[in-house]
Amino acid sequence: MNMKVSLKHVTQYQYSQDVQLGPQLIKLRPAPHCRTPISSYQLTIQPRTYFINWQQDPFSNHVARLVFTEKTNFFEINVELTAELETINPFDFFVEPAAEHHPFKYEANLMAGLSPYLETEPCGPLFQEFINSIPPEKRRTIEYVVYLNQLVFNRVRYMVRLEPGVQSTEETLKLNSGSCRDSSWLLVQLCRHMGIAARFVSGYLIEATADWHNLNSPTESQENVAELHAWCEVFIPGAGWVGIDPTSGLLATEGHIPLAAAPDPSNAMPIYGELDVCEVKMSHKITTLMHKS
């Protein structure tokens, strides 16, 4: 059954004094490749002393660039959107015959565009051991991608982590735990080391019911119906970019609404900008209203 979801996301920054904000880059609008129909979208900013320019970054993500004309002691970003959660079959794609089995090679005309998504970081001992544990056998490509996703899902225990940034692959494997962004970055690097172009994705995850995601979530997140989330997308010739979520071990479906996709997490940050030195208190809240359609 299809669902219509109204989502409201409020992010607030409270500063210890009046500060001058540098240009603020907001990537909180559904990305052009979002498969879930978005019937309405609105971005509201406080304070209102700003100029806004909508742009697309080098990776085709929508970016609102804000320039503030006056100092302020707070900054609020309010996103409201309506999504039509129509059932998506994540396996509804074709694969080019030359890429039907892994390992495969990308054609020369694809390599120029995909090269940033094939760059790998140096392997630490734990990551190298993780890679070496994967049998070097020929498999159907989609089965192989699902297999890699399952490896990370089974290895990394999901946890809510409020610290900024993304753990290194070595740190995530040492702890055997991490946030969705940590496991997603591990999966991105794993896919690239296996010759599969991969990118990091930040977005909203909307769940109509408490099902697969919450089975692997800590208790404090199990009542969330919508949340900021991160996952991975791999490029398969013929299919294009295919979303895989190491937090669930499954492919991305209609509940995954991408906001930004990039070669690395720093270029997929939902909010980025500089400001004067001060103390900052940040809070954000996502609420939803669902209707059967």
Description:
The protein has a five-stranded antiparallel sheet with strand order 14-13-12-11-15, covered by helices on one side. Helix 3 packs across helix 5 (180-193). It has six helices and 17 strands. By secondary structure, the protein is an alpha+beta fold. The chain is globular and about 60 Å long. The longest helix has 15 residues, at 141-155. The protein has helices at residues 108-114, 125-132, 141-155, 169-175, 180-193, 212-215, and strands at residues 3-19, 21-26, 38-46, 50-56, 62-68, 72-85, 101-102, 139-140, 157-158, 177-178, 198-206, 226-236, 240-245, 250-251, 256-262, 271-275, 280-292.
Q: Keywords, please?
A:
293 residues, alpha+beta, five-stranded antiparallel sheet, four-stranded antiparallel sheet, 17 strands
Multimerization state: single chain
**How large is the share of residues in beta strands?**
35-45%
Helix content: 10-25%
Flag low-confidence runs. 211-224
| Strand order of the biggest β-sheet | 14-13-12-11-15
Query: What is the approximate shape?
Result: globular
Topology:
Blueprint: E1 3-19, E2 21-26, E3 38-46, E4 50-56, E5 62-68, E6 72-85, E7 101-102, H1 108-114, H2 125-132, E8 139-140, H3 141-155, E9 157-158, H4 169-175, E10 177-178, H5 180-193, E11 198-206, H6 212-215, E12 226-236, E13 240-245, E14 250-251, E15 256-262, E16 271-275, E17 280-292
Parallel strand pairs: 9-10
Antiparallel strand pairs: 1-6, 1-17, 2-5, 2-16, 3-6, 4-5, 7-8, 11-12, 11-15, 12-13, 13-14
Helix pairs in contact: 3-5
Question: In short, what is this structure?
Answer:
The chain has 293 residues and is α+β, with helices and mostly antiparallel strands. It is 19% helix and 41% strand. The longest helix is centred in the middle third of the chain and has 15 residues, at 141-155.
